[in-house]
Amino acid sequence: MPDRGGDPEIQDLSLPELRRAAAGCERCDLYRDATQTVFGKGPAPARLMMVGEQPGDQEDRAGEPFVGPAGRLLDRALADAGIDRAQVYVTNAVKHFRFTERGKRRIHQKPNRTEAVACRPWLLGELARVAPELVVCLGAVAAQSLLGSSFRLTRHRGEVMDLPGSTAKVTATVHPSAVLRAPDRDEAYEGLVADLTAARGVMA
């Protein structure tokens, strides 16, 4: 895979080596307040790779991606779409939790462009090692990390495209947390399942 903003030294690491190296990442300031780096998890190689935005509060504490409410909803949506969650590699575009404190609560804050760019070498390293057939971006931050800042989820949701610099295809849908916030949660959930079902069809 071409560099596309990655780090040649990182690209040459195995997945376990990437995980160990990312644990000490100080490429942006997010490491100062986060509990730990939350690296991807799943089989490698894997036919399907899912990329979210960043770890949330529970993920930050556990050190694993998609273990909080959004992760549980994703697990259910994958099952309803006929996708075996155990065969999916899941990760985030940004590996540290960005938040503001409000009393005892840590409130999620969207990563900025600088933070996403700083984390991109880890994501590209994962892509190179996982070698997926299809990447599903969950939300705009993930999609823009791979497809550029001009990508608009509202315009391109569900489209299947070539992933630049890779043999993989890529598509984008909403992040599960957006389903949890939706005014009509049932309708939003059905839309997510439909997108994931279509994604499964791409790999058929």
What is the β-strand count? Answer: 7
Shape: globular
Number of helical stretches of at least 4 residues? 9
Mean pLDDT comes to: 94
Oligomer: single chain
Fraction of residues in β-strands: 5-15%
Gyration radius over CA: 16 Å
Instruction: Using the coordinates above, name the CATH class.
Output: Alpha Beta
Work out the count of structural domains. Answer: 1
CATH topology title: Uracil-DNA Glycosylase, subunit E
Largest sheet: 5 strands, mixed
Which ranges are low-confidence, i.e. pLDDT below 50, for 5 or more consecutive residues? 1-5
- How is the largest sheet built, in terms of strand order? 2-1-5-7-6
Name some characteristics of this structure.
two-stranded antiparallel ribbon, disordered N terminus, 5-stranded mixed sheet, alpha/beta, 204 residues, 15% strand, Ura-DNA_glyco_family4, 9 helices, Uracil-DNA Glycosylase, subunit E
What does this structure look like?
The protein has one domain (8-199): 3-Layer(aba) Sandwich (Uracil-DNA Glycosylase, subunit E), CATH 3.40.470.10. A hairpin with a 2-residue loop joins strand 3 and strand 4 (105-108). It starts with 7 loop residues before the first helix and ends with a helix. The longest helix is centred in the middle third of the chain and has 18 residues, at 113-130. The chain is α/β, with parallel strands linked by helices. It has nine helices and seven strands; from the N terminus they run H-H-E-H-H-E-E-E-H-E-H-H-E-E-H-H. Helix content is 41%, strand content 15%. The protein is globular, with a radius of gyration of 16 Å. Residues 1-5 have low confidence and may be disordered. The strands form two sheets. It has a five-stranded mixed β-sheet with strand order 2-1-5-7-6, with helices on both faces. Strands 3-4 form a two-stranded antiparallel ribbon. This is Type-4 uracil-DNA glycosylase. GO terms for molecular function: 4 iron, 4 sulfur cluster binding; deaminated base DNA N-glycosylase activity; metal ion binding. Belongs to the uracil-DNA glycosylase (UDG) superfamily. Type 4 (UDGa) family. Keywords: 4Fe-4S, DNA damage, DNA repair, Hydrolase, Iron, Iron-sulfur, Metal-binding. Residues 39-197 form the Uracil-DNA glycosylase-like domain.
